[in-house]
Amino acid sequence: MVNRFVVSPSKRTNEITYAVRDVLLVANEAKKRGKEMIYLNIGDPIQFDFYVHPFMVEAVYDAMKCAKNGYAPSAGVEEGLESIRKEAAKKGIKNVQDVFVSYGASEAIEICLTALADPGDNVILPSPGYPLYSALNSKLGIESRYYRLNEADNWQPDVEDICNKIDQKTKGIVLINPNNPTGSLYSKEVLVKIIEIANRHNLLIFADEIYDKILFDNLQHTSIAALTEETPIVTFGGLSKCYIAPGWRIGWGILSGPSSSLKDYIGAIHKMTRARLSVTHPMQYAIKTALEGDQRLIPMMNNKLQKRRDITYKRLNSIQGLSCVKPTGAFYAFPKIEIPIPDKEFVEKLVLETGVVVVHGSGFGDAAGKGHFRIVFLPEEEILEKAYNQIERFMQQIMKSL
Questions:
Q1: Cα–Cα distance between 128 and 178 in angstroms, integer?
Q2: Which of 65, 103, 308, 310 has a 20 to 30 Å separation from 142 between CA atoms?
């Protein structure tokens, strides 16, 4: 007898989407049609001409040789935790109550959201913003409320819009600085206002600062946690972007603010870290080497990326029907589509007709992402020029048809 039983997925998965990877379904179709593919959709420096510092590789190899291959302490190895504390001090963060290591910054975010909010609560997210947060909220039954980043103000957070989204069920505010997908760097003045809002409404701030060292035009990053000792803040970081080791999956969370505010929350976080046993053990020995070792690769990376940013900004703004705010951090641009076509349809046509893979803007939040698309400008200059030539020809065809 054949069992015809159908395993039904949970309802919580219905709203989970991840535009950065979902666009690959269209890309695979373009590849089948024989298109020469140029992938500008995933922010993985390793896929291009960037590499992990050899000293980090040596540190991991030495840890493996020294039998650091069993379970690690749940919160992380002490050597790594101490380096993260020192990194917090370098960033100007005071009143640090706890640090923990995670399986990439993504796991730190999931742990902290799970420990913070119950089904029916809400967390305020940037729009446009990294889609992991809304996907996790859907999974956890937390309502996502979106505040606008203002394109006319270099994608700075709209402070008034944050205020309008807060109610009795609001548990926290998420900041992504530098921002993914816009590449914007937030001003100190805006960060101070967000601190005031959080204090007024007793809200926790999630500060996603995974790109904090990837900066252009001699600009400096301000960590929001460095501006206050009285506001509960979780600052997320990791080795994936600034230290070019995304596949190692080493991230962390830094909890700062009053001990009285954070004691129970920290206890809940550690319950979860114990439940998942530990993060990959030998990779944690790269944390100290990365944070305390030779930093010369970072300005070298930034110089290379700034040239690619400049090409991206110049070319996109020279194409009729597109415009783009200049990115000041990370390695993303978020051009606006100034013609009447839905952004997802635009991207699908672009991918199928040119082989250039980008991500539709509404995948980063409908409120402000709609009518845009995200470009990753990690590839070498000649690849970028080739991609922008394709985009320009594509736009010329569209403009003729209007």
A1: 12
A2: 103
